């Protein structure tokens, strides 16, 4: 009691430790909640159908271990084609979003012109209004452009879907770049294009990683637009290709879980690659 009275900072320190403990407990609980479905899919993808329904939470044993689902997916379907389509669409849309979004963000953050604020508000509305509300109009436009059942239609839609958020995130980061760097480059005779590509883009790599993660996951997981704009067998994506294993009366759960496992692995790898830059981007955005 005397020690606490002599050290008034002790109660504050204990409350601080308790707060940190609760924060870590909350983060751990959220991590378990987020990873649990992925772990459940991976575990049950290598189990027999009977073992899946008997105890879906149990790890596979020697008796229940099977790779029949992966054999069916890789041997009897065009899964590699669907996988390639998803990868191509996602990477192409991501490239367009980062490139065009960074250019637009540079224009909005660096230059003052009539309609700057109106355009910024318009882009903010693009974040708030779901693109699926315009599905009918988008389909009519793709029919007129003869882009139905092409991967180009999906790339255009996902680019339009991701641009508003990308521009808002990148423009905020670009405003934090010291003007002295840009002015020094201009004094050395460096053009605006070289300033953009050689000065600005390297400085906002954390923001680009944040945009990449936030835009590639919805594009990879989307089922709505592939089903409407590209339902043919040669343009199916992974999420649409999985649907062939789900029937009205019978569902091949081994193949479904195997296909989902193969589909989720690329996202885990890309997230692991971009995770450090993503965390830097999120924390930098928090203090800005």
UniProtKB/TrEMBL annotation:
CDD domains: TM_PBP2
Localization of this protein: Cell membrane
Keywords assigned: Cell membrane, Membrane, Transmembrane, Transmembrane helix, Transport
Membrane topology recorded in Swiss-Prot or TrEMBL: Multi-pass membrane protein
One GO CC term on file: plasma membrane
Domain ABC transmembrane type-1 as annotated: residue spans: 83-274
Biological process terms in GO annotation: transmembrane transport
Alphabetical list of Pfam families matching this protein: BPD_transp_1
Principal localisation: membrane
Transmembrane segments: 21-43, 87-106, 118-139, 151-174, 195-217, 255-274
InterPro entries, A to Z: MetI-like, MetI-like_sf
Official protein name in the record: ABC transporter permease subunit
Organism of this sequence: Duganella vulcania
